[in-house]
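Archive entry: two folds, one per protein. Generate the first.
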Amino acid sequence: MAGRDHWPSVFSAVVAGAGVRERTSLGASDERAGFVKDNPVQIPDLIASVYKKLGIDYQKEYVSNIGRPIKLAANGRPLDFPF
């Protein structure tokens, strides 16, 4: 696993602004906060959700100066929750 080998399976994020409703929670960890218990979320999905909320085309693909395609949200899909 990546990271520093302590609790690499679970993380939290605070998202505010852009119309995000206050006190919205998504997902849960186990009693020791070591593993995801409910509603796992991948980073690309969170990024796609934020971009969509801000009115940014999360499916946009750019091309680098060496011709490499770069997707904004790495094929993420917006989350379906009151965001």
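Generate the second and append.
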Amino acid sequence: MAEALLRAHLEDLEIPARVRSAGTMAWEAPATSDAVEVMRELGLDISRHQSTPLGVEIIEESDLILGMTRDHIGRVVSIVPAAADRAFLIGEFVRLAGELGPPEADEDFDSWFRRLAAARPHRRMLGRSRDEVADPLGEPIERYRSTAARLDAELREVARLLAT
């Protein structure tokens, strides 16, 4: 759901970007029927989505990594420790950018991401629990809807910030 939502928001702002999702579990599977239905309600088709396991190559090729839970971000950093300065919870990214502001006029994204990461409290798990978005897998469709609504709002803000 997050991949489709972020891609749509970036396209709406005419931001050329490659958006990929990867799962921290080892299996490959299609999107659940509830996820497909909820995204269809939002005008997005994820019926052909196939999960991809997270790996070194995906992490190293990514300029920005956004995860839903601290476990997701922790897994990214355990695989590629150098990715910590560009790996954020979605909510954490929005919160930190709200506190520090968008990139400066002459600041590239890598520098901005490092500045956001430096604002995290030291010696703590990356992100805060309030920044997490629980995976609705196995939950009723209403949980998928509430998760999609939160992701939609936060990823719209991520796209807006990347457009600055």
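Annotation attached to the second fold: The chain has a mean pLDDT of 93. The chain has one domain: 2-163.
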